[in-house]
Amino acid sequence: MTHTHDHQGHHHGHGHGHGTDAGTDEALAEILDLDAEVLRPLQTEMIDHVHTLAAGTPIRRVLDVGSGTGTGTLALLQRFPDAEAIALDSSVEMLRRLEAKAHDLGLAGRVRTVAADLDTTWPSVGTVDLAWASASLHHMADPARVLAAMFTALRPGGLLAVVELDSFPRFLPHDLGIGRPGLEERCQAAVTAANTAAMPMFGADWTPLLRQAGFTVELSRHLTADIPAPIPAAARRYAETILRRTRARLTDHLSPEDLTTLDTLLDNTTPAGIVHRDDLTVHATRFLWVARRP
Ligand SMILES: C[S@@+](CC[C@H](N)C(=O)[O-])C[C@H]1O[C@@H](n2cnc3c(N)ncnc32)[C@H](O)[C@@H]1O
């Protein structure tokens, strides 16, 4: 495995939400890893679509843009056994985790990690057969510029898969909330409002931008995953991590009653705490676009 630092370790604060310090990155990395574990069937379904559309063309070089801890990179390497991958991310911490996982899976020899802030630079990646950008494009200051760079990097006939989301997973029964059901809906609405303000492309339709960049959009899908109660331990940890993060973000945006309900849920010393509840479920959604460079 090789790694490159395309920037000189600099981070800049444009407010688009990517990690700017190791602590932030570590917290996000934990969520990404739980996300990968809990929503693996969703990931498999998306990669199956890409595999079908790639049929008949060799996939030897894969580019993962905003790879995070490598959920996409590693799943793609497993699905395309002749491929090598380049994982780009601004976060050294994410790439470190990706490398450790690649090593554990015996895939280290097929991955190159490149630390680069794609808002300021586009590293030289050569020509690729498949580009993948999952939950990363909405973080970019100028997504159209990144799409143009991916278009140029792809060989004619090559594929780009864009995965995006418009909300975080849901876990709670609707009737939760002191005197007022719908706690999770209110949390989601507040988080979405904050995200949309900071990242205007969060939850957007990417078809027009893909077309403007020169791609032919071959597939656009809304995918869902549902895990009924009782949910497995990893899903419970996932729920707790997301709700803890939500609680921290929404202190100034929720009523005192809703904050109290959240605090009770997050207090595992009481029977109402998340680790003891048997009524949690998982409902998650993703949007997938697969586009081709003509
Ligand atoms: C929500 S995570 C998604 C990670 C991964 N693709 C996945 O699906 O699990 C977004 C990733 O994009 C990276 N990112 C955000 N802005 C970036 C930028 N300007 N340049 C490079 N990477 C960036 C973040 O560091 C983070 O790892």
Number of strands: 8
Radius of gyration: 19 Å
- CATH architecture identity of the largest domain: 3-Layer(aba) Sandwich
Secondary-structure element series: EHHEHEHEEHEHHEHHE
Mean pLDDT: 91
| Tally of individual domains | 2
Alpha plus pi helix count: 9
- What's the main sheet like? 8 strands, mixed
Please give the share of residues in helix: 25-40%
Kindly report the CATH topology of the largest domain: Rossmann fold
* Residue fraction in strands: 15-25%
Q: In the CATH hierarchy, what is the superfamily of the largest domain?
A: Vaccinia Virus protein VP39
In order across it, which strands form the biggest sheet?
A: 1-4-3-2-5-6-8-7
Ligand kinds:
S-adenosylmethionine
Distance between the termini: 32 Å
Report on the structure:
The chain has about 290 residues and is of the alpha/beta class. It folds into 2 domains: about 1-20 and about 40-165 and about 205-225 and about 285-290, 3-Layer(aba) Sandwich (Rossmann fold); about 170-200 and about 230-280, no CATH class. Helix content is about 40%, strand content about 20%. The chain contains 9 helices and 8 strands. An 8-stranded mixed beta sheet has the order 1-4-3-2-5-6-8-7. The longest helix has 17 residues, at about 20-40. The relative contact order is 0.16. Bound molecules: S-adenosylmethionine. The site of S-adenosylmethionine has 20 residues, from helix 3.
